[in-house]
Amino acid sequence: MALLVLLSTVSFTVEKHYCGDALIDASVFSEVEKCASEAYEIELEKITKKPCCKDVVDVIEGQDELQKTSFDDLDQQLFLTAYFKSYKNLFEGLPNHVIPHKDYSPPNLVFDIQLLDAVFLI
Known about the structure:
The protein has helices spanning 2-9, 38-48, 74-89, 113-117, and strands at 12-19, 22-27, 53-60. By secondary structure, it is α+β, with helices and mostly antiparallel strands. It has a 3-stranded antiparallel β-sheet, with no helix packed on it. 0% of the residues are buried.
């Protein structure tokens, strides 16, 4: 969110240098490079009687005014409260379950009663 606010409020310029109809250089933070040969440029101006190279500067304005809202809006309060409560519930552990027979050890069997009584499960 902070990055979005920063990018929307920053202003910058884009400089472009054209020779004829061809884009030679474009720059955002530094100056553009001019045509390589100034003599060639002067000769073209004599032939065509108009300058062949031109510089174009585009200024991209950032947002000047930010809308400030107060926290008194009830919908915003309800949304934030519900969001934080549900987020907090994600990290709560499960309650400890009581296992009543955890420490119970069965008695030792002296005789196998099912075999003695001939009782078998079918």
